[in-house]
Amino acid sequence: MNIGKLKFNSISESPDLLADPTRKYLATLENVSPTDIAVAEIDPLYAGGEELCAYYDVDPSIGGNCIVVEAKRADRRWYAACLVPTGSRIDLNGFVRKYLNARRVSLAPKDEAIRLTNMEYGSINAVGLPKEWMVLIDASLVEKPMVIMGSGLVKSKLAIPGSLLKNLPNTEVVEGLGI
């Protein structure tokens, strides 16, 4: 399957292009053909959402960026992920803070995000995150036939049907998450 200038292969043909947590989670999916989900090798210099879309001629409306956030309230600290369309902004200390019922929300520190997800920074995705994390997904993405996002490794991208995203563990589909 080709999307723009990207050539995607079945995840079963290229498992080495997926981070361990992503590959392990995808292997647990029932009623999903391995050909429904694909992965493409990319130049890591163009791993960022907007850069990828421009370089590989991919429609930005099918791209998803995953942001790991750290939420705090009193002595409690927890993590969540937000998957928003490429090019979107996210209102962390307004919308997300209220949604997570936190006193403060910020981007998770880079080293902590890498350690907790076991994925490479710049390619963290919503597939295979720690089970206790809440995953907020912008409603527009679940309507897409295919969403392109990180694979957990900066050398590749994952193409997954938007309809599968709403079935990820602890996922909530949220209108207007990305602005």
Commentary on this structure:
There is one protein chain. With 179 residues, the chain is of the alpha+beta class. It has one domain (2-174): YbaK/aminoacyl-tRNA synthetase-associated domain (YbaK protein, Alpha-Beta Complex). It has six helices and eleven strands. The chain has helices at 20-28, 49-56, 92-99, 110-117, 139-142, 162-165, and strands spanning 2-3, 6-7, 9-10, 38-41, 64-73, 76-85, 104-107, 134-138, 147-150, 156-160, 171-174. A five-stranded mixed beta sheet has the order 7-5-6-8-11. Strands 3-4-10-9 form a four-stranded antiparallel beta sheet. It has a two-stranded antiparallel ribbon with strand order 1-2. Strand 1 (2-3) and strand 2 (6-7) form a beta hairpin. The longest helix is centred in the N-terminal third of the chain and has 9 residues, at 20-28. The chain starts with a strand and ends in a 5-residue tail after the last strand. The model has no long low-confidence stretch (mean pLDDT 93).
The gist of it:
The chain is of the alpha+beta class and 179 residues long. It is built from 6 helices and 11 strands.
